[in-house]
Amino acid sequence: MDTAHSRIRAPSTFTDAAQAVRRIEEIYTDSANTIRGAFAALATPSEPRVSAAGASYPYVGISVGLNDLRIDARLSYGALLDPGSYGTTLTRPDIFADYYREQIALLLRHHQVPVVVGVSERQIPLPFIVEDSTADITEAQLSAMQELFALPDLSATDDSIANGTRHLPPGGIKPLALFEAERVDYSLHRLSHYTATSPRHVQNFILLTNYQRYVEAFRAYGRQEVEQGETYTHFVEPGDVVLPNPRLTQDEPSGTPLPHMPQMPAYHLVAPGRQGITLVNIGVGPANAKTITDHLAVLRPHCWLMLGHCAGLRRSQFLGDYVLAHGYVREDHVLDHDLPPWVPVPPIAEVQVALQEAVQRVTGLSGPDLKTRMRTGTVATTDNRNWELRYAELYERLNQSRAIAVDMESGTIAANGFRLRVPYGTLLCVSDKPLHGEIKLRGMANALYRERISQHLTIGIEAIQILRAQGMRQLHSRKLRSFDEPAFR
């Protein structure tokens, strides 16, 4: 075995991705069972205490020399561009097995050298295995937990790889993935908290919205699909309430509806291979937008699309018109320390084309007529819900930027997609025009909701179907990747 990976325990080399993933599953299962057993002993006063030391994350690594590089300009991921040793810790093969298998297979194919799999030095924190780790625990037992188990170490868990700010010591192992195992586990547990659904239900195509009425329309669509359709196997609602498709699965309905909704409820229209659609109601504001996309990104979705409402800035726009964002003025500020405002956030061509084609298909408009319903341009995203009250200050800035709409989430979602390498897009619906005296009055808003929300959601779903049919290789653009990019997508 390469001495660069000599610090891992029980190392094995593999030239077959399926075998490598089976070993990853064994290591994770053994570590998880060790932690569960030690916790059960701690929770039983009559049992002797057992340490969970050594219950660590699986590790995968690879070392390549100059002669092993297969530089191909067509590839956006799955290949290493510099010689050296690379590695990462891994977690939750029950969720990521297919993803790991694909990424490892690409490395093996492109470089023709084996990967090494073993037990890392990074122990798995107790709360990521035993969720009710503090239930019915005495003060003495709580003190013992710190001696017997690893607990989350946020001082060593960050986004420095994704942000391009990690500095390796000479000869250090280079990152193989954007997120190491503890960062992934942290987000998986945050997703459960914010969405009230298990992260294993999250699909590869994600719709983000800021209005409950989109949720209601998606619920109706999802239920109809599993009751009458032949594409989706389950529809999952908060509380992991599962409605199965009786034509595609023998599963029984399960789960109990929640008495209260979580902060950002999620709904999942499940298809084989996670090729279905997840919708999350992120609520209002850039903080929520950053929070949920920070966590969704660890699942490595194929794309996320923002479907929401905005203020139109042009007299030629009408309430109910669509805005397809091709640029963003980022005044949300929540990402300033992770992705400085001077970093441009480019449009993703494949997503832009799919959204425009979806608008054409659903509305029946094309050519010059399409401009009567949809305008492409810059969206300004602000963190001030009452930005209209700063008219004198903002008028000049909005005018100089050529912005055609203002919202509170789109720029944040696009910027985090760029930062975390998740293809992104934005299609908004004009709900008011405050600079021109057309504010959102209750009666006007209700009429708009009735007429546009169903169509807007249909356009988002149609765009996803277009992207899915085109294949993912084309979607995962090189423009999202840095010059020292980790090989895992």
- Percent of residues in helices: 25-40%
Strand count, sense and barrel status of the largest sheet are:
5 strands, mixed
CATH architecture of the largest domain: 3-Layer(aba) Sandwich
Report low-confidence residues grouped into runs of 5 or more.
none
Sum up the overall morphology in one term: globular
Radius of gyration: 24 Å
% residues in beta strands: 15-25%
Q: Please provide the ordered H/E string of secondary-structure elements.
A: EHEEHEHHEHEHEEEEHEEHEHEHEHH
Structural class: alpha/beta
Structure description:
The chain has helices at residues 17-43, 93-111, 139-148, 160-163, 181-195, 212-228, 286-296, 349-363, 391-401, 410-419, 442-470, 472-475, and strands at residues 9-14, 56-64, 84-89, 115-123, 174-175, 205-209, 234-237, 241-244, 266-270, 277-281, 303-312, 322-331, 374-382, 403-407, 424-432. α1 packs antiparallel against α3 and α7 packs parallel to α10. By secondary structure, the protein is an alpha/beta fold. The two termini are 26 Å apart. It is built from 12 helices and 15 strands. The model has no long low-confidence stretch (mean pLDDT 92). It has 2 domains: 3-189, amp nucleosidase, domain 1; 282-480, 3-Layer(aba) Sandwich (Rossmann fold), CATH 3.40.50.1580. The strands form 2 sheets. The protein has a 5-stranded mixed beta sheet. Strands 11-14-13-12-15 form a 5-stranded mixed beta barrel, surrounded by 4 helices.
